[in-house]
Design brief:
There is one protein chain. 25% of the residues lie in helices and 27% in strands. The chain has 203 residues and is α+β, with helices and mostly antiparallel strands. It has two domains: 9-53; 56-202, Umud Fragment, subunit A. The strands form two sheets. Strands 1, 2, 3, 4, 9, 10, 11 and 12 form an eight-stranded antiparallel β-sheet that branches. A four-stranded antiparallel β-sheet has the order 7-6-5-8, with no helix packed on it. Strand 11 (186-195) and strand 12 form a beta hairpin.
């Protein structure tokens, strides 16, 4: 007579073994969760530090820099730029809104303009053209026919200050209306357009 063999006991782990396997699986799951939590926290902290101290993206809210920057464009601003070199004429900078600049509840706390006058410069406009220290300023970023008005008298830029203007000279609230800005209020230099894709490129 042939004996039948019940394989159920041999296929099913004993209770202690099954418990150890469950414990091992649970430990692995916990480790994975902790690892991902650490990765997420580190990524968030890195993003905050980078945004605070290194680079930050800004959305253009107005037409004051057209056609260089259109409403809705997004630019990347280098916050470390002026720790390595001085401000240059022609730089496009983001800075804190000056006290004399008109503001409302929906107005951003920062402005973006182009540096025209550096500390010690004398700036003025004559026949619609900008002159710096008596020499006509070549401005290839302006559309042909652009006129700069409301600068008939020479303006001396004090030390530690800058004269800034928008590229859309007829529709820009800038130093012609709120005066020079303090270099300490600069947030950084805008150097690259990242949005929309069709306008991607350096400034």
């Amino acid at each position: 007579m042939t004996e039948s063999i019940d394989n159920a006991d041999s296929a099913t782990p004993s209770a202690p073994v099954a418990a150890r396997r469950r414990s091992s699986t649970n430990d692995a799951s916990v480790r994975n969760m902790v690892e991902w939590l650490v990765v997420i926290v580190v990524a968030v902290l890195a993003a905050v530090l980078i945004k605070t101290f290194v680079v930050q993206a800004f959305k253009i809210p107005s037409a004051s820099m057209e056609p260089t920057l259109m409403v809705g464009d997004r630019v990347v601003v280098n916050k470390l730029s002026y720790r390595t070199h001085d401000v240059n004429r022609g730089d496009v900078i983001v800075f804190k809104r000056p006290p004399l600049a008109p503001s409302g509840p929906d107005e951003p706390g920062q402005l973006i303009k182009r540096v025209i006058g550096l500390p010690g410069d004398t700036v003025m406009a004559k026949d619609g053209e900008v002159y710096v220290n008596g020499k006509r300023l070549i401005e290839p970023y302006l559309p042909e026919g652009t006129e700069t008005l409301d600068m008939d008298n020479p303006i001396d830029v004090p030390e530690g200050q800058l004269w800034v203007m928008g590229d859309n000279r007829m529709h820009s609230g800038d130093s012609r209306y709120f005066g020079t800005i303090d270099e300490s209020t600069i947030i950084g230099r805008a150097f690259f357009k990242i949005w929309p894709p069709g306008r991607l490129g350096p400034l």
